[in-house]
Amino acid sequence: MQQFRPSLTPMPRFSHRSVGSGKLALGIDIGGTKVAAGVVDGSGVIREELRRQTPGRDARAVEEVIAELVHELGSRHDVRSVGIGAAGWMDLDGGTVMFSPHLAWRNEPLRRNLETLLKRPVTLTNDADAAGWAEWRFGAGRGHSRMVTLTLGTGIGGAIVMDGRVERGSYGMAGEFGHQIIMPGGHRCECGNRGCWEQYASGNALGREARELARAKSPMATELLVAVDGKVKDITGAVVTGLALAGEATSCELVEEVGDWLGLGIANLAAALDPELFVIGGGLCAAGDLLLAPTRRAYAKNLTGRGFRPEAKILAAELGPSAGLIGAADLSRVRRPRGQRGTKPRTWLRPAPGRETSAGRPSY
């Protein structure tokens, strides 16, 4: 493992005045393959954004990348708060990443580590929760009181927004929908189980199925192999999605299969949670209706009580790959007081701009 050495570059000075909704905040989204950072204003608009590759599975190296991004953006903007959205299961206090299937975090005190590096308070949340909050505040979820967001990329992230708050469960781990077992004894998942939903309905799943087809020397994989100069290992979900959008038949079929699995899992979530809206985001959503049309069909086909109940809408996310950093920035604007384990930041209870109860008061 790479030895951790704190950056010798002085960190920028930040204002410690009260953070208001109109002030600039810095949001960082840590995923399995990239670290994205952006300066976000109170309307959810990104003023500047930077991206770096995630440096392998080395937790300390990831923290160094975060510090570099904060320094670079903080040197050019009057940033008042920092929010981090990280892939993994957090404790309810938002201080420790208990486990991350795609990164080397095991009971990692990430907030403490980052605050030591950055010399200021940090708000830490799950990356899918951050993306879901952003969509509810500024994107496809505006105007809806009960919403589930799914982010399809390396795996499946999930967030539940109910009546103006992110629902995190009793232990902080609600929304890990990608690890519901949908095919007992199926593909091995990085979480350790077999048959998890994300092994069938994610960008990684799409790439894996395409590579298996190519390795089987199926004539159906001809165009896939042409696209990567015959290098099977280079067939990824993004490659398949691009070919599908260009009309390549096998790629369209593979995307449709992922949509079938996605719709089945969403029907299960509807039976358990009964939201009024599902918002689908993440890199795989670049496929658009090639993915969402079969998803909606499979959802309607498998929905419990179909024909005798209202059906939740399934919409594409509006904020694209920057949703996570937008949400992390917004959640950082009002920080959780120390020592209040289990309480939620006031930001998590703030309604979207202009959203009020029938009595004319904010729905806190």
Gyration radius, to the nearest Å?
A: 21 Å
- Across the major sheet, the strand order is 3-2-1-4-8
- Helix count from the secondary structure assignment: 9
Spans with pLDDT under 50 lasting ≥5 residues?
Answer: 1-21, 336-364
Which architecture of the largest domain would the CATH scheme give at its second level?
A: 2-Layer Sandwich
What is the makeup of the main sheet? 5 strands, mixed
The portion of residues forming beta strands comes to 15-25%
The H/E string reads EEEHEEEEHEHEEEHHHHEHEH
Q: What number of structural domains do the residues give?
A: 2
General form: globular
Question: Care to describe what's here?
Answer:
The protein is of the alpha/beta class. The chain has two domains: 25-133 and 321-349, ATPase, nucleotide binding domain (Nucleotidyltransferase, domain 5); 142-317, Nucleotidyltransferase, domain 5. The chain is 31% helix and 18% strand. The protein contains nine helices and 13 strands. Helix 1 (59-74) packs across helix 2 (110-118), helix 4 crosses helix 6 and helix 6 crosses helix 7 (249-273). It is globular, with a radius of gyration of 21 Å. The model is unreliable at 1-21 and 336-364 (pLDDT under 50).
